[in-house]
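Quick start: read one record
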Amino acid sequence: MADTDILLEEDDGIVTVIFNRPEKLNALTKAMWKRLGDVMLELDGREDIRCIVLRGAGEKSFAPGNDISEFETDRSNVEQARTYGAIMARTLGAVAQCRHPTLAMIHGICVGGGLEIAACCDMRICGESSRFGVPINKLGLVMAYAEVEGLVKLAGKAVALEILLEGRVFDSAEAKDKGLVNRVVKDDEVESESKAAARRIADGAPLVAQWHKKFIHRLQDPAPLTDAEIDEGYACFGTEDFQIGYRAFLAKQKPQFRGR
């Protein structure tokens, strides 16, 4: 992997992670999957981040999936596929479990591994001409458990099966109808709307965003909530950010949250 295949840009609490292979429509390589996992774990540990945006370079593609040329070199047999799959699973887990809010800015193609990554983000904004799908049945391949998990959680069993069994590539309107994206905008507004959404997220209290992510993830588990978990729902009242927030509201000022 070239050192520039995964780029980072930072802007006042917002970090943009860029899949940077526009000449290949940002097709993902084994090295890129590993680097993305490393990056997401590093960003998760930082206290100064308010939102992470994931995108592909250019305006033609988020990511079309994995680079097919690697099937001969890195995924030609079960052992190689197992090693490759472990890297992908680690990365998808790092995206899904990141404590900071994540947003997929989707231009153009969002297929296969690209859709897997987007499905693990908290929000997805795409353009009208964006295309989605997982046509890997035509390659004789499956999405492994870790890869299909995000899709099932996002769209449900019936939709996930439809996508995988038919292997169709479909448009943004259908993706919105299936619950795969939060918002469809004009192609030339994808970046501006995604940045505006990221800024709205970043302007909110960061601990509140982290708690909301934690609570919603926990509610996917059918096990009864413990007393300690229920009590955590009131911990925000003991934070400095709560004092900042409600005082700013009363003063009709924009709050400047500190994350504590």
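The mean pLDDT is 93.
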